[in-house]
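Comment thread on ticket #2218

A.B. wrote:
> Attaching the input chain for the structure job we discussed in standup.
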Amino acid sequence: MAEENKSSLDPLAALCKRRGFIYHSSEIYGGMPGFWDYGPLGCELKQNVKQAWWQFTVRGREDVAGLDATIIMHPRIWKASGHLDTFADPMTMCKECKKLMRADQIADILAEQKKKPVPHNPEGTLSCPYCGGEMTEPKPFNLMFKTVVGPIDDPSNVAYLRPETAQAIFAQFQNVTSTSRMAVPYGIAQMGKSFRNEVTPRNYTFRSREFEQMELEFFIRPDEAVEILHGRVVTLADNPDLNGPVQDDWGWEVWHKYWVEQRKKFLNAVGLPTEHFVEYWQKPDELAHYARACVDIEYDFPFGRQELEGIAARSDFDLSQHQKWSGESQMVFDDPLKQAAKKMDENAKAAFIEKVQADWVRRGKDVEAARKFCLNLFDGKYIPHVIEPSAGVDRLMLALLCEAYEEQKLVDEKGKEDIRTVLHFSPKVAPIKVAIFPLIKKDPDQDRIAREIFTKLQKKVNVMWDVSGAIGRRYRRQDEAGTPWCITIDAQTVADGTFTVRERDSMQQKRMTYPEFLAMMYDALEF
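C.D. wrote:
> Ran it. Output below, let me know if you need it in another format.
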């Protein structure tokens, strides 16, 4: 988004509605806050973003398998994960105007309204940013949507719409491991709907109540297992090559940094330059209790810098919790590890146990648990640790829209000024790849050739057919849709088979043959 347009989402939101990217859900009935529908161009963009992520994360690798789990799962899953007890936001209500809002967002609301920081009254409570009234004491508000499974509305039948896609991966870990014939280190990926009953959904589609996630759980050996196998654990201090092949002797922090770099490469590939987002490494006091590290990739939206996706090193917390609550073992058997442990004599094993116990004590963990952990390692058994890159489809789409949006001031040969609105999408995610224009729609030869090209391309990518209005008007419509290439069929096409290809960003035109254009297009679409 050009600098002069970065201060507000209004121009972009207007374009998104006008061109069929995003509509407010149930608009004819007044809409529903926090719910959005994607129109013809929006659903194509969304599909392309998801396909790009799947290609990059799953199909483009040998060590990741896929999963598509149900939205409603056994409620004990959410007890095990901690969502039932801790997945809450602090909610407060104005005693005067009765507005509900998150207590931690009041300052942001005031900032958006360009008001002063939140004033405190003598009793120490916050004032309402809308009417100045007194706010109630903040109370935890669980964000999960409740539902009832079965015909009887009874507490025993209560279930929840999932607030994230990750837990299904952990719950199906053993099934996927056995059926995919993969061994640690390997990952399980899932895309799908999630639901959070946000107190104050805001900032367009950024914070919604219904959204889609793209999550990967990449399971790795504990560092202690790596040490038994290789006699060492590679850390970031060893300066490993994160752009080369993955290595079996990597420790957790190298795997974590590796996936940070992979996510950055993906964002670059779909159209976000590295210089337009930042890595925020969470401080120790900001980390979840189970996390060893977490990086937020943040983007400068018009409403401020916000998290686009996160990459967390979650240790073995999730699988351990599901093992505890389900009673089903989440351990894996690692034969190379067992064979390596067999080569250790008793003194070496004792020294190893002592070293692990000392390390666990430093991290506030139990000595006896460390001993049992080591004995399991000697038998080739452990609960894998996990690195989790987690991204929101809707947030990424909004970032791509913000990044692509530009209003260009053009001056023609006569000095007349005009504004061109354009979306500079990467061809990989652009909703329409090619638009086909017969120059003269009533010319039978031009129409026939244009139809032939349209039909051939239609089998490969999403193509638009447009014969309405002057060529200039057709170009502008496609600029607003973010279409990378427009092909115009004219009299010369009838004569020699070449056609004019107009490139969106430069607006330059070049005559090409169909094979030449196809080669150029495929090159631009390739990851």
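A.B. wrote:
> Thanks. Noting for the ticket: The two ends are 24 Å apart (CA to CA).
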